[in-house]
Every structure is written in structure tokens, then in C-alpha cells.
């Protein structure tokens, strides 16, 4: 029984780590820009394929593959900003949220099809994998799962430090909380939006490498993590980063337990059930809270 | 402010026109603020006082006329205006609600050249507003109205700007708190800060302001010393409800 419980926990934490990485990127963009980036899934896929190309086709080390995925994701974020977001921001602000969502759906479809044309539709094996497992007494912890959890923890620490302790991070948080006030302080909010999209793209890129290392590379690779990341964003409260991480881990563990207890096909419906329940009982999310104002 | 008018102006507005949608709110405002002066624009609600400050800081786009800081024409972009030394303390404070008091103040120092300068400004703000030092780790949204106003002023001071724009500092506060806020503003003025303040009640600035401009329906209808306005019952009755 302990073996089974441990297997569920390891699977849950691994999925949770991957979901958290996808969720943080999505939530960061929503929280600071009010933008639901529907191209996030394709950016995640792009990262996976770039790492594959760097490692397999160019024969470079795995670390360079990771770096390539990060750079490709960040560049995709920058291109998205210059090609779409910057122009939409110059138009009527009240229509930005809807317009950018539709525009990024188109970008996502275009990018996914570009990948399909370039690499074909057949699944490819991501060469970022470590065989074997760490054995601690009766416990068996696969190295691949440990690698994913370790990479995600490192990324979360880096993002937290960047947002919490740097001038850039403070400007991002300030812009998210009050755009006009941030501008009055001298923050160039357009530059902040560019930084946020690049950071989110970099996270998506590395997430794509990690997800494909557990499954296989295919053009729709990012769709499932993106859908689940969106569910986790809603459950946590859109734009709430610590909440998004907690929701990702909690829901992934729930999914793993439900899959074990009721069968794999019930995993995703259980997440949908949770998100519907949250939307009914706490529409602002589990970690969303009303602003306190005293006069 | 003796001799202030002889100095070159810090802020100069030449016939500025601006508004929202199809409506012009400001209809050709011209005024000048010299270094060290305390200028106040008074007027009834809804006649363009806040819009005036928002236009100077770039939050509301200019439709006509021009605004200069130290002789340099403003681009109309808020962050570039801040770089030229315009520190705006907006109405309603506009704090970063989920940040601590300290983080709000540090955002004021966003454009400061180095850490030493930020520390110097922070010490200055804490010396003027010691309560902020006690509250430095408190989240801004949990502060009282008076405390939020003080953070707003402190954040403006952290910008170290050439001119401080203060929008209705008494709005929504209890009389005792208003006195405290104006005591701080008085200290800033005595320390030589250049201030452009908008206020509905001229009595609040009677002993502080060097000059008053009376704003009505988007135009300046009278300018002069505070005591002169307070002696003009017909102006007070016509424009400020007595």
C-alpha cells in the first residue's frame, strides 16, 4: 500500500510541478496585463521542439537544449508583443481583452501548424530523459520525475526572486496592481508588458521540454497542459501566482488519486468538477480576496 | 515666495486644452509655477482640477497647447514626464494595494539613480512622516485613509521630483487628519519644495499658497493672493458656494 501511495504522490507532484510551470506563465500575463494568452500552448510546444532540434539535430548538450527552449520561448513572447499586443494596446482599451484573446488563438493555431509543417505529425522522442530510479528503502523515485520537480523548483525560485526582489519584478507587480500609478512613478508599462511576455514565454519553453520528456513531442503537445493550467488559474484566482502554484499541486494530486481510485478517464472530469464548484462558490477563486479599504 | 517669479519657471502651461471623448474639460489653461512656489488651483467639483494635474503628468492626453518643465516640452507620456521631475500625488492615493508601505515608497524611488539615493530619500520621508517607518511592512490596502494619504505623499517625495502635484489631499478625510496632512504639506513648502496643489476649499491653503487660481468650467477665471480671494465674497459665493 505504501508503494502505491508513494507512486501516486510522485506522479501527482510531477504533474503538479509541470502544471505549476504552465500556470505561472499564464497567470503572470493575465495578472499584469489582463491578457489571456491563447498562444501559450503553442509557445510551450515550440520550446519542446527547439530543445529537440538543438540536442538531436545539432548534437549539442542537453543544457544548451534547455537554454534554446528558454530563448525560443522568450523570443516568441517578444514577437507576440511587437506583432500583436503593442498594436492592440494602442486601440480602445475596453476591447483589448477580447481582441487579444482572439488574436492569440490565431497565433497559436498558426504556430502549431508551422511546427506540424516543419517536423511532421509523427510523435518524436524528447532526448531529455534520465533512466533509472533512486531507491530509498522501499521507496522508488524515478530520476526523470525528480529532474522535473527539481527544474520546476529552481524555476519557481528564480521567478519568485525576480518578481519579489528586483526592480523589474517590482515594476511588474506595480503595473499589475495599478497601471496608471506605475506610469506616474516612471515605469514604462509597454516595456513591462514586453518583459512579462518574454518571461512567460521562457517559462512555457522550459515547460514544453519537461512535458515532452514525460510524454512525446507532437504539435498539439501544449494543449492539454494549457487547458489544465487555465483550470488551475481559475481555481486559484486569475493573476494570483502563489495561489496558482498551490492550486496546481493540489489539483494534480487530486487528479492522481482520482485516476488511481476511479480510473484514468475520471482524472480530467474531476478537475472540471472542482472548477465548476469553485466558480459557483468562490467566483474570484480560492485564493482571490476582496481588497480591504478603510476610511 | 519672495522673488520666486524672477526665477525661470519650473512648470509652464500654455493654453492647454484636453478632455474626455468629445468633451473639452480644460479650455485653454495657462499658468506658471516657479521654483519654490506653492501654487493652488481651487474650484468646485467637476470643473477640471484633477484633469489639470492628470494632463500635466500625462495620464490625460493633451488636445491643444503645450506643457514645459524647466523649458523642456513634455511628450505626454507619463513615465517620461516623471523622468523630467513631475511627482504626482493623485486623488484617491492610487497606492499599490497589495504591496507593503515600504514597497510603495520604493516604487516612488523607481527612477532614483542608485541605492544610496534611495536610502537618502527614504530617511527623509521617514523623518517627515515617522508613522510610515512604523508601518513599513504593513500592506497598503489595510491602512486607514489618513495613512494611505501619507503613503501617497511619501511616495511622491521618494520621486525626488522638481515639482510636486497634489490632488485634493483633504478629500474623504476626517478634519483632524486633514490638519495633519496639511501640516506635512506646510513643512514641505517651508523646506522649499515647489508645489502645485488642487483643492476645493480655499480656506485650507489661505496661509500656505503664494498664489491661487480659481478654476471654473475648465477655465481660470481669477488669479491672485489667497487673502484677496478670501476678501472677495462675491467670488466665493459665485464659484465656491460661499
In brief:
The complex is a heterodimer of chains A (295) and B (242). Chain A is mainly α and 295 residues long.
Summarize the structure in words.
The complex is a heterodimer of chains A (295) and B (242). In chain A, helix 1 (2-33) packs parallel to helix 5, helix 5 (143-165) packs antiparallel against helix 8 (189-214) and helix 9 (223-236) runs parallel beside helix 11 (267-281). Chain A has one domain: Orthogonal Bundle (ABC transporter involved in vitamin B12 uptake, BtuC). Helix content of chain A is 75%, strand content 3%. Chain A is built from eleven helices and two strands. Chain A is mainly α and 295 residues long. In chain A, a hairpin with a 2-residue loop joins strand 1 (133-136) and strand 2. The termini of chain A are far apart. A two-stranded antiparallel ribbon of chain A has the order 1-2. The longest helix of chain B is centred in the C-terminal third of the chain and has 16 residues, at 175-190. Chain B is globular and about 50 Å long. Chain B has helices spanning 49-57, 78-83, 101-108, 115-128, 130-134, 145-158, 175-190, 226-230, 233-240, and strands spanning 9-20, 23-34, 38-42, 62-69, 72-73, 86-89, 163-167, 195-199, 211-216, 219-224. With 242 residues, chain B is α/β, with parallel strands linked by helices. Chain B has a six-stranded mixed β-sheet, with helices on both faces. The two termini of chain B are 28 Å apart. Chain B contains nine helices and ten strands. Chains A and B meet through helix 6 and helix 7 of A and helix 2 and helix 3 of B.
Amino acid at each position: 500500500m505504501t508503494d502505491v501511495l508513494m507512486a501516486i504522490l510522485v506522479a501527482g507532484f510531477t504533474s503538479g510541478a509541470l502544471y505549476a510551470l504552465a500556470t505561472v506563465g499564464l497567470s503572470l500575463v493575465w495578472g499584469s496585463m489582463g491578457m489571456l494568452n491563447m498562444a501559450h500552448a503553442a509557445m510551450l510546444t515550440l520550446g519542446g521542439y527547439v530543445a529537440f532540434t538543438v540536442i538531436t539535430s545539432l548534437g549539442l548538450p542537453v543544457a544548451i537544449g534547455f537554454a534554446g527552449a528558454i530563448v525560443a520561448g522568450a523570443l516568441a513572447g517578444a514577437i507576440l508583443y511587437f506583432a500583436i499586443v503593442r498594436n492592440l494596446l494602442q486601440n480602445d482599451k475596453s476591447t483589448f481583452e477580447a481582441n487579444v484573446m482572439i488574436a492569440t488563438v490565431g497565433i497559436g493555431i498558426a504556430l502549431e501548424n508551422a511546427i506540424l509543417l516543419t517536423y511532421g505529425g509523427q510523435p518524436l522522442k524528447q532526448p531529455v530523459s534520465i533512466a533509472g530510479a533512486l531507491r530509498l528503502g522501499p521507496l522508488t523515485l524515478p530520476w526523470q520525475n525528480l529532474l522535473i520537480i527539481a527544474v520546476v523548483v529552481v524555476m519557481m525560485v528564480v521567478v519568485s526572486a525576480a518578481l519579489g526582489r528586483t526592480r523589474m519584478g517590482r515594476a511588474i507587480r506595480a503595473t499589475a496592481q495599478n497601471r496608471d500609478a506605475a506610469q506616474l512613478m516612471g515605469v514604462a508599462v509597454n516595456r513591462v508588458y514586453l518583459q512579462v511576455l518574454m518571461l512567460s514565454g521562457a517559462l512555457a519553453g522550459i515547460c514544453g521540454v519537461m512535458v515532452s520528456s514525460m510524454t512525446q513531442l507532437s504539435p498539439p503537445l501544449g494543449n492539454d497542459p494549457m487547458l489544465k493550467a487555465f483550470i488551475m488559474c481559475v481555481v486559484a484566482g486569475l493573476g494570483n501566482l502563489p495561489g496558482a502554484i498551490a492550486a496546481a499541486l493540489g489539483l494534480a494530486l487530486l487528479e492522481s488519486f482520482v485516476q488511481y481510485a476511479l480510473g484514468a478517464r475520471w482524472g480530467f472530469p474531476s478537475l472540471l468538477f472542482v472548477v465548476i464548484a469553485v466558480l459557483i462558490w468562490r467566483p474570484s477563486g480560492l485564493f482571490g480576496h476582496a481588497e480591504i479599504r478603510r476610511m | 515666495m519672495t522673488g520666486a517669479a524672477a526665477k525661470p519657471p519650473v512648470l509652464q502651461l500654455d493654453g492647454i486644452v484636453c478632455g474626455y471623448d468629445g468633451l473639452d474639460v480644460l479650455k485653454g489653461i495657462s499658468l506658471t509655477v516657479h521654483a519654490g512656489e506653492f501654487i493652488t488651483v481651487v474650484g468646485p467639483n467637476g470643473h477640471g482640477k484633477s484633469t489639470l494635474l492628470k494632463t500635466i503628468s500625462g495620464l490625460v492626453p493633451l488636445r491643444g497647447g503645450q506643457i514645459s518643465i524647466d523649458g523642456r516640452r513634455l511628450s505626454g507620456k507619463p513615465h517620461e514626464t516623471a523622468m523630467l521631475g513631475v511627482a504626482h500625488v493623485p486623488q484617491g492615493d492610487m497606492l499599490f494595494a497589495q504591496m507593503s508601505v515600504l514597497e510603495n515608497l520604493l516604487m516612488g524611488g523607481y527612477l532614483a539613480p542608485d541605492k544610496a539615493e534611495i536610502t537618502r530619500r527614504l530617511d527623509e520621508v521617514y523623518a517627515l512622516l515617522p508613522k510610515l517607518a512604523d508601518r513599513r511592512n504593513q500592506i497598503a490596502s489595510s491602512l486607514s485613509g489618513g495613512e494611505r494619504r501619507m503613503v501617497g505623499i511619501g511616495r511622491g517625495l521618494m520621486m525626488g521630483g522638481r515639482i510636486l502635484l497634489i490632488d485634493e489631499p483633504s478629500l474623504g478625510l476626517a478634519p483632524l487628519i486633514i490638519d495633519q496632512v496639511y501640516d506635512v504639506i506646510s513643512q514641505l513648502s517651508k523646506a522649499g519644495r515647489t508645489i502645485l496643489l488642487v483643492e476645493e476649499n480655499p480656506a485650507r491653503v489661505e496661509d500656505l499658497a503664494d498664489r491661487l487660481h480659481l478654476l471654473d468650467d475648465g477655465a481660470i477665471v481669477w488669479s491672485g493672493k489667497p487673502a484677496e480671494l478670501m476678501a472677495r465674497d462675491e467670488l466665493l459665493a459665485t464659484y465656491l458656494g460661499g
